[in-house]
Structures are given as C-alpha cells and as structure tokens.
C-alpha cells in the first residue's frame, strides 16, 4: 500500500486581486481541507490551473505545500505532467527535490504519441523520480486513452505505482497499480471495487461526506446519492472555476481564475448556491 490516503483533494490555486499566487490563502485552504477529511492534496493539477502557472510558481507552490503541510502524514502529491518529455522530466526531478510525497503524471496531451512513444515518455519520467508516480488517464483532456493493457505494462516501470482513472468506462483494478477515482462521481464505485480512494474536486466543499464514504461503507450509496446535486452543480463549468465559486460562498475567498478560465456566470453561481443550500452548507436567504 502506498499510504497516500483515500481522500486527496485536487486543490485550487488561490490568486490575489493582481492575479498573483496567494500563498497565505493557499496555506489556509490546505489547513481547512485537512480539517474537513482530506488526507492530502494534489498541488498544481488541472483544478490548480497548472497550465497557467509558470515553472517558478508551480514549483514554489509544491515547496510551500510541503513546508506548510497541516500535520505530519498529510500527503503532498505534485502535478508534474507535460506534453514535452524534457519538461515533464524537469518538473518530476524538481518536485522530488522540493519534497513531494508522490507525483501525478498525465500522459502527453495534444501531440498524442503512439504506444511506443508513451512507453518511452514514461520511461524517462520514471528514471527522473525517486518516489511514487500516479499515472493520470483522462482521455477527454489528453485526446488519448491509456487502455488497461497499457496501464499494466506501464506498471512494470520503476516508481509507477498507481493510476488516477478518469475514464469511467474502464474503471477496474489492475495488478501493480493502486486505483484512484479520477472523477468525483465514481468515488463510490472505486471504493466498492477495493480502490485506494479518489483525487477529487468536490472534497473542497463536501469533504466530511466524502470522508464518510470511505469510513462508512454501509452508508456509501446513500451518501453518494445525497451528493449528486452538488456534483452536478460543480460540473456546470470548468472545475477550477466552480470550486472557487463554491469556496467563496462558503467563506473561503480564493480569487478569480486565470484566463482562459473565467468566473462562473450568474446562472452557474445560482446553481452552485442552490446545491450548497440544499445540503445546508450555506443559508439560502
């Protein structure tokens, strides 16, 4: 067992009014998440708007998370993916130097290498690492699926020890890889299969309920049904934008997203507010 934890929140990156990384808000949010049931965070992932962070911001954020982790054992997973293998290798080595506990590595997007290219890419990444790598399969973003047989082959590489599976149709346990739900709506299924947990967005706002899904398997299905409204609401716009809007409603200002993301519309905000009100997380008045 990797021991990364079951509830890992893909933490948003707070920005201040000038669009700079707000380190104080980030540390405060990390502490809040720890108190709401998260076992750790994924820093500089998609929800953390990694695509719009420069390398200094990206790596400084990882280092900050390591230095300011809320308590010993709170896991810091660093997003280190790139569609340029040299860049992925550089980020991987640097994140290890900054003290991340594990690495999240998405397959190259846009250029879509073939099978041999993927094996070569991850071979280079694995050689740059000295700690666990979590593969990230999200074909709706990368344009390329990592099928189970390829994941099993990648699992033979040193340090590759888990997969964040965001292809709901191929959710399954694989020899040599711990399984993490890559979409919030399959957390229950993943846990029922015997998976390790999930790398989640909704845990920003319903962390205690998701924690209970892990700790109370007898109540898992009913909790999952209870959360469908908020999961749908957080899916009305890109996750980084809806999570930030929901956090602001809950009293955790994290700033606006960076372009090309934009803040949620009034209609989207209404949907999010209604879902939070329905769960008695905010006052609907």
Structure description:
This protein is an alpha/beta fold and 285 residues long. It has one domain (7-213): Alpha-Beta Barrel (TIM Barrel), CATH 3.20.20. It has 12 helices and 8 strands. It has helices at 23-35, 55-67, 85-97, 115-128, 139-142, 148-154, 187-193, 203-215, 220-226, 228-234, 239-249, 266-278; strands at residues 7-10, 40-43, 75-79, 102-106, 133-137, 160-165, 178-181, 197-200. It has an 8-stranded parallel beta barrel, surrounded by 5 helices. The model has no long low-confidence stretch (mean pLDDT 97).
Main features:
8-stranded parallel barrel, TIM Barrel, 285 residues, alpha/beta, 13% strand
Broad structural category: alpha/beta
The amount of beta strand, in percent, is 5-15%
The helix tally amounts to 12
Examine the secondary-structure arrangement and name the CATH architecture: Alpha-Beta Barrel
CATH topology: TIM Barrel
Structural Rg: 18 Å
What is the CATH C-level name?
A: Alpha Beta
Q: Describe the sheet with the most strands.
A: 8 strands, parallel, barrel
Spatial arrangement of strands, main beta sheet: 1-2-3-4-5-6-7-8
- Low-pLDDT sequence parts: none
Number of strands: 8
